[in-house]
Write a structure and sequence with these properties.
single chain; 896 residues; alpha/beta; eight-stranded mixed sheet
């Protein structure tokens, strides 16, 4: 379930309080006080057989005695009573409940069983549950305070969701003193039903919520969470704080990747991939509330720092550098204006130190010059109180400057009592202010980072240098054979064969069952070789002396292999030795040693790792993670997060490595683990890389029998659904390659629109359109395949090879509950009348049926007779639009 019936929870017309009480300071008494003390306009119905009235309101003995069916019930009775109460409420038609009571899954097995009974009681009635074990919910704009919080915050436009009730009350207390309001506050507790994914979907669609903040301890249903987070972050800022940053790793460290990929690192990459902004602690969270509450919006990254204290300015500039920000360079015009209005002793640069005796007029003159500078995108203004200058006058100068500019202004007035009036003035005029300059800069960088994340989300990925062509049957046969043999790990030889099946370059490797065979194979290769011990019982060969390099002669091989057997037998006497692998010594001049790997995270499934490799890989700890599926942009961005990236870019006489080759190898690894759910760990270490390409020297692949054939379902983000590709024909007999849309299609979509008849575009978009913006096309092409689907039809040549052209596009976007989906279709103007539009519609309708969508609908201009006729032929019904007389809504029911 998703947002179904959430209006009953957050916009109820009536509320029942089960467990209401008059006992002072009890939860039932506080809940009753909060529900009745606000501006909630509907009836509040206390329920408790022990009281005649609660909070001056008639109290009812039981749910069955309620005079009306409440939309929402708030329950604070003993845990064992809750499932029965939920069943009673659901039977009466109640659609929402907030379960305050604790004593469920957090207590272990017995509590988990009770929580299951609660859910089983709610589900037949489609009754949605917040909690259990939660503080409650608040919707200030609706006058609803169904919580036992100590304060009711003012109305605002920030939605705040938290698994922790104490974090929620701390934020409320802090924000209340600063006049910062909220649209919704929800303590989600154990998230038995309503979770972060549901709430993100709900708040993303709420017009009164401008920004969303999350306090997360753990994520349930990661694919739903990622889909909801990506959708929400495209429309409004989403800021998250995640506790447990020092949690243990994703799984036992059987591989280098497993040792390096900690679970918190995976959360970090998931938040970034979704386009959210992560903050580190409560201090940053409070600062983010301040920034969001003041509606600060950044358009650029170049920051100017204005201060009356040089040291404070330097500290602010250092923070800009530490956070990878950009300190603005002042223009010649700005320098002239500042020289004319400031003392000769001003800093003559950015930070702009206007000296400790600066009155308000000096702040005014400096800000006037700075804010006119086109090279300045935002200003942090700092003031340190002195005995010879009024901090209040300086604050008023900032307020006056804000009214004349759209550029963000953030402030830091240092001190306490002396600067309190200035801070109050800033709060009154919606200017964010912070205790220290570092916090002010950090708040600005929060906004910059968020904007960077959004820009990254909207980037068009390059077409891959080559398609990932794979010999899937060959790889599957190797893995299946190993599973049947009971192997936990593929041998090095098997692992390399899997990589080779996906086009990853490998060094020639052969298996030798004994010393004599190793000598024979080395002789055949006729060049220096490396030999490695072959055993499924040995995880890291070099740790037990199981690797010998640069062996030039057969005699060298014989001595090394014999000594290796002796060392390993002493170090690991119980290990079963299957022989050796013999491989030629790789010759790659100036190669970098890298690692590319995969580990399965308990929450988010497969995670790809890239970093500096070699035997000391854990010592370097230079890595970056990414969630599959990947494209070239995402792979390059992951590489860029590492320290080794600087070396890969080239330096002195060492040329740049083949970054695209490295990125493509990451994509291939992501495809391997997507295609083969039996793989749960993978290491390529080292992967050699230089300007000529890449070469895998060593590889490890861990396997286990999947409990079910889950395939790509284990990925937190649904990959490109290749199985939906097909060949179709229009009524003229012309053939097209039909496939799901890709982010790389943006240029082709622009070309298609550019060639369209203007009238056809007007009928499709309801207004004259000459071209579509990058943001619009990016949103249309970068879809979440778990929620939307768009098919493109490409003409094909005589051999059936798709041409670099798009003839038509059809799409549906379903609501989070999969009940209704809106369709849209467009066909190239020169193909009108060929029946391609009809064929595309039948394809998307068939797909919607497989998704069990209940209804497809769309809006069509009344004058668009061809589309209305097509819809009629396909069985759509027509319905007049209440708000738009020029539009007709067409609907097609798909329920069996």
């Amino acid at each position: 379930m998703s947002i179904r019936n959430l209006d009953a929870v957050f916009k109820p017309t009536s509320v029942a309080l089960i467990g209401a009480s008059n006992r002072p300071d009890s939860i039932g008494q506080v809940l009753a006080r909060n529900l009745t003390a606000g501006s909630f306009r509907g009836p509040v119905l206390p329920v408790n057989p022990k009281h005649r009235s609660v909070a001056g309101i008639l109290c009812h003995k039981s749910v069955k005695d309620l005079p009306i069916t409440p939309d929402l019930a708030v329950i604070c009775t003993p845990p064992h009573t809750v499932p029965g109460i939920i069943d009673e409420l659901g039977g009466r038609g109640t659609k929402g409940a907030v379960v305050i009571s604790a004593g469920f899954a957090e207590l272990g097995h017995e509590g988990a069983e009770l929580q299951d009974r609660l859910l089983h009681a709610a589900q037949p009635h489609l009754l949605r549950v917040v909690g259990p074990n939660c503080l409650g919910i608040m919707v200030p704009g609706h006058g609803l305070n169904a919580s036992f919080a100590h304060l009711t915050p003012p109305v605002g436009d920030i939605g705040f969701l938290s698994q922790s009730g104490t974090v929620l009350t701390s934020v409320i207390d802090w924000a209340y003193a600063r006049g910062i309001g909220f649209s919704h506050l929800a303590s989600l507790g154990s998230m038995a039903d309503i979770d972060f994914g549901d709430m993100l979907d709900y708040l993303a669609r709420d017009a009164k919520t401008r920004a969303i903040m999350l306090y997360i301890e753990a994520v349930t249903e990661p694919r739903k969470f990622m889909s909801a987070a990506r959708a929400a972050a495209r429309t409004k800022p989403v800021i998250v704080i995640k506790s447990g940053r020092t949690a243990s790793g994703a799984k036992a460290a059987s591989s280098h990747t497993g040792a390096l990929a900690g679970s918190d690192d995976v959360y970090d990459v998931a938040f970034r991939r979704a386009g959210m902004l992560r903050v580190a602690d409560m201090d940053e969270l409070f600062d983010a509330v301040e920034t969001l509450g003041m509606r600060v919006k950044v358009e650029g990254e170049r920051l100017a720092v204005l201060t009356n204290g040089g040291g404070l300015g330097v500290m602010a500039a250092d923070t800009v550098s530490d956070l990878d920000g950009i300190l603005a360079s002042l223009s010649d015009e700005s320098m002239e204006a500042l020289n004319a209005s400031l003392p000769r002793t001003w800093s003559h640069g950015n930070p702009i130190d206007i000296i400790g005796d600066a009155p308000g007029s000096r702040y005014t003159a400096a800000m006037d010059a700075i804010l006119k500078d086109r090279g300045v995108d935002a200003v942090v203004v700092i003031n340190c109180p002195t005995a010879i200058a009024d901090s209040g006058d300086a604050a008023r100068a900032v307020v006056d400057a804000k009214d004349k500019t759209s550029k963000p202004i953030l402030t830091s007035w240092i001190g306490h009592q002396a600067v309190e009036p200035a801070r109050n003035l800033f709060a009154e005029h919606k200017i964010p202010t912070y205790d220290t300059p570092e916090k002010a800069v950090r708040a600005f960088m929060h906004l910059v980072t968020y904007k960077r994340n959004q820009t990254t989300l909207m980037e068009v990925p390059d077409s891959q240098p080559e398609e990932v062509s794979a010999d899937l049957p060959r790889a599957k046969s190797i893995i299946d054979t190993a599973l049947e043999a009971g192997q936990r790990w593929l041998t090095e030889y098997q692992a390399k064969q899997v990589l080779e099946a996906y086009g990853v370059p490998i060094v020639e490797t052969v298996v030798a069952p004994d010393v004599a065979s190793a000598v024979e194979e080395a002789t055949r290769m006729g060049r220096p070789v490396a030999i490695k011990i072959l055993s499924n019982d040995i995880t890291h060969k070099s740790d037990v002396g199981g690797v010998a390099l640069h062996l030039k002669t057969p005699a060298d091989v014989e001595r090394a292999a014999t000594a290796m057997l002796e060392r390993v037998s002493q170090t690991m006497p119980d290990a079963k030795i299957d022989g050796f692998t013999v491989q030629e010594m790789a010759q790659m001049r100036g190669a970098h040693e890298l690692i590319i790997g995969m580990v399965e995270d308990a929450n988010f499934g497969p995670v790809i790792l890239f970093g500096q490799g070699g035997t000391a890989v854990e010592v370097y700890d230079d890595k970056a993670l990414a969630l599959p599926p990947l494209n070239m942009n995402l792979a390059r961005a992951t590489i860029a997060q590492t320290r080794v990236n600087r070396q890969l870019r080239g330096y002195r006489d060492r040329p740049a490595a083949d970054i695209d080759g490295i990125a493509l190898t990451m994509i291939k690894v992501a495809q391997i683990v997507t295609d083969h759910p039996a793989i749960d760990e993978l290491d390529i270490n080292p992967l050699f890389a230089n300007e000529e390409g890449v070469l895998a020297l060593d590889a490890r692949i861990g396997i286990k029998q999947p409990s079910v054939d889950i395939g790509s379902k284990r990925l937190a983000i649904r990959p490109y659904p290749k199985k939906l590709e097909a060949m179709i024909e229009d009524e003229e007999g012309d053939r097209y390659f039909l496939r799901p849309i890709k982010p790389e299609d943006e240029p082709l979509m622009h070309e298609m629109v550019a060639e369209m008849d203007p009238e056809d575009l007007r009928l499709r978009f309801f207004s004259p359109v000459k071209r579509l913006t990058h943001d619009t096309v990016a949103r249309l092409s970068q879809i979440d395949y778990d929620r939307e689907m768009a098919f493109v039809a490409q003409p094909v040549d005589g051999d059936g090879t798709p041409l670099k052209d798009i003839a038509g596009i059809v799409r549906i976007a379903a609501d989070p509950d999969n009940i209704r989906a809106e369709y849209a279709v467009i066909v190239s103007s020169h193909l009108k009348g060929h029946g391609l539009g009809r064929r595309l519609m039948t394809e998307i309708i068939a797909y919607a049926r497989t998704r069990k969508i209940g209804e497809i609908y769309g809006e069509v201009l009344r004058e668009n007779k061809p589309m209305l006729a097509l819809c009629e032929q396909l069985g759509f019904s027509r319905h007049a639009s209440e708000d738009e007389p020029d539009l007709v809504e067409v609907r097609l029911g798909l329920a069996d």
